[in-house]
């Protein structure tokens, strides 16, 4: 049952977005995030929504599938919205007990809900259309400039891809340890929260020991295969920009320019 | 003349000693285990060598000296003419002597088979097109080419171990060291791996050093070293070694079943040659001596 969990939630299909260079998608996602915080008027949101809708349609990933991925974040979103709804000061519209709902609060909450949902959908498009491998490759190459300020970009990317490789192995192992402990009479399901957390100890300890042992062996195996960091390393599948990537960059620039311009239009400002 | 000598010995060790020092929580030495005790041996290029020994005999520790994962405390190891203690030769040495480990899961790095095989050449700085050529050839050599796009998680143990062998092969080593590659496999996977290794040795001329405690696997070897207590206690062809059934038993090693059967028969007075290694040999010898 644990093996069914997949990280990154890559959705396998053929589309322009899938074929884009991961660096483009990475930068695009970051730019889209920034753009969401650039504007405070409906025109800006309309532009962002139109852009997002266009990307979703191009990605060939069913919209319902994306919404499914959002379920886990609904509670977080609800809390943020409620706090904003009640805390924001301004012209009171409704008030009961000690709580006041203000006009500004409603606008703020609505904007936030919109922003968060677009943030989540925006980032999920990247993970839905890019394989984890491609993503780490893109990070490694796209963020190379960070090396100048001593960020170990190659090492981080390598760690991420190894972690992704070991997730199914460690899940399988957890499953095995759990069954072994259950077979010896461990009770994992009953009792209060505190008891159940305590019952996890005999599962976590062997799991950690085995993970360290694996890490040690893997490091030896990597060294035996001449791994010595990113220095002087070549790539089996090097990333190369195609013409569609350049087109995507131009579209992104235009979008960014448009949203900054829209963000500056003060006539429609609410607040 | 010099070239000939150079080509002869791919690996040579002289008086190698390696000790594991056990310490308690305060860092005080509580015991010293001599895992490798003055071992001198040489392996010739193109040979299929087997190193046998029960658990704790020091065979794996010795193997780790062959590609400079461990450095000897006393004595020296030469790989392809290079001394392993010379730090600037480290990557050359690891390229000439590739190593396959016991647990297939803990040595596969990538999430796609072909990318894992390409990992070694990538580290060595091989150009992209050459990497692809090597990956294709290595995967074909171990018979895993049709799985090149698969995820290693979906393969069987024997298949994973063949991927690991391909990963080492792609580095174009002169010598492959296999440290108990079949210990975690089922009989089918074990056969797959040994077949792949034997074929590499015969067809590609790669030197193979197989470390194992399964006697059946060493029957096809050119030379066998038997280790016990960190020392090489026997060496010779499989036939020579397996004819010493009683000595092997004293070392807690099992001889292959057929050899044991032939030995017992011989002890009971049947006329059979020494050190029979295969079923075919036994039936033939029996037919020759007692056949119609």
Characterization of the model:
- The complex is a heterodimer of chains A (271) and B (292).
- Chain A has one domain (2-264).
- Chain A has a two-stranded antiparallel ribbon with strand order 1-2.
- Chain A is mainly α.
- In chain A, helix 7 (132-142) packs antiparallel against helix 8 (153-183).
- Helices cover 67% and strands 3% of the residues of chain A.
- Mean pLDDT of chain A is 81; it is low at 1-8 and 267-271.
- Chain A has helices at 16-19, 22-36, 42-59, 63-70, 74-87, 103-129, 132-142, 153-183, 193-199, 201-224, 243-264, and strands at residues 92-96, 99-102.
- Chain A has eleven helices and two strands, in the order αααααββαααααα.
- A six-stranded mixed sheet of chain B has the order 6-7-8-3-9-10, sandwiched between helices. Chain B has a four-stranded antiparallel sheet with strand order 2-1-4-5.
- Chain B is globular, with a radius of gyration of 21 Å.
- Chain B has one domain (2-236): P-loop containing nucleotide triphosphate hydrolases (Rossmann fold).
- Chain B is α/β, with parallel strands linked by helices.
- Chain A binds chain B through residues 132-133, 161-162, 164-165, 168-169, 214, 217-218, 220-228, 232-238, and chain B through 67, 69, 91, 94-95, 98-99, 101, 103, 105-112, 114-115, 118-128, 131-132, 135, 152-153, 167-168, 171.
């Amino acid at each position: 049952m644990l093996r069914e969990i997949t990280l990154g939630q890559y959705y396998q299909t053929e589309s322009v977005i899938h074929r884009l260079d991961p660096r483009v998608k990475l930068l695009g996602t970051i730019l889209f995030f920034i753009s969401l915080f650039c504007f405070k008027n409906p025109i800006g949101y309309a532009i962002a929504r139109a852009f997002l809708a266009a990307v979703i349609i191009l990605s060939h990933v069913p919209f319902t599938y994306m919404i499914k991925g959002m379920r886990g974040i609904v509670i977080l979103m609800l809390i943020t919205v409620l706090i904003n709804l009640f805390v924001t000061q301004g012209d009171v519209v409704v008030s009961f007990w000690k709580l006041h709902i203000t006009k500004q609060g409603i606008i703020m909450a609505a904007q936030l809900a919109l922003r968060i949902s677009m943030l989540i959908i925006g980032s999920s498009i990247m993970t839905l259309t890019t394989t984890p491998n491609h993503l780490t490759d893109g990070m490694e190459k796209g963020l190379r400039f960070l090396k100048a300020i001593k960020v170990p970009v190659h090492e981080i990317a390598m760690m991420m891809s190894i972690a992704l490789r070991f997730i199914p192995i460690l899940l399988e192992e957890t499953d095995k340890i759990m069954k072994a402990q259950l077979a010896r009479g461990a009770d994992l399901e009953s009792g209060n929260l505190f008891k159940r957390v305590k019952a996890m100890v005999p599962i976590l300890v062997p799991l950690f020991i085995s993970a360290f042992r694996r890490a040690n062996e893997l490091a030896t195996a990597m060294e035996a295969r001449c791994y010595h960091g990113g220095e002087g390393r070549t790539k089996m599948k090097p990333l190369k920009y195609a013409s569609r990537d350049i087109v995507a960059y131009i579209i992104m620039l235009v979008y960014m320019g448009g949203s900054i311009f829209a963000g500056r239009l003060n006539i429609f400002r609410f607040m | 003349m010099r070239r000939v000598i150079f080509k002869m010995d791919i690996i040579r060790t002289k008086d190698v000693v390696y000790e594991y020092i056990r310490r308690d929580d305060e860092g005080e030495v509580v015991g010293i285990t001599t895992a490798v005790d003055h071992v001198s041996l040489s392996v010739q290029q193109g040979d299929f060598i087997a190193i046998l020994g029960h658990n704790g005999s020091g065979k794996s520790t010795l193997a780790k000296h062959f590609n400079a994962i461990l450095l000897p405390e006393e004595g020296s190891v030469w790989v392809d003419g290079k001394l392993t203690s010379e730090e600037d030769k480290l990557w050359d040495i690891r390229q000439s002597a590739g190593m396959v480990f016991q647990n297939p899961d803990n040595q596969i790095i990538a999430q796609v088979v072909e990318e894992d095989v390409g990992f070694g050449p990538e580290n060595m700085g091989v150009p992209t097109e050459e990497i692809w050529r090597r990956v294709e050839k290595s995967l074909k050599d171990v018979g895993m080419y049709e799985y090149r796009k698969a995820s290693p998680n979906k393969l069987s143990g024997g298949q994973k171990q063949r991927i690991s062998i391909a990963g080492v092969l792609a580095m174009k080593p002169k010598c492959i060291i296999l440290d108990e590659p079949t210990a975690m496999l089922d009989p089918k996977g074990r056969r797959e791996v040994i077949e792949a290794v034997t074929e590499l040795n015969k067809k590609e001329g790669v030197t193979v050093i197989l470390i194992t405690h399964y006697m059946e696997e060493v029957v096809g070897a050119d030379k066998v070293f038997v280790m016990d207590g960190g020392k090489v206690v026997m060496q010779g062809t499989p036939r020579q070694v397996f004819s010493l059934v009683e000595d092997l038993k004293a070392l807690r090693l099992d001889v292959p079943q057929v050899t044991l059967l032939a030995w017992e028969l011989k002890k009971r007075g049947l006329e059979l040659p020494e050190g029979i290694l295969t079923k075919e040999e036994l039936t033939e010898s029996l037919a020759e001596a007692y056949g119609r």
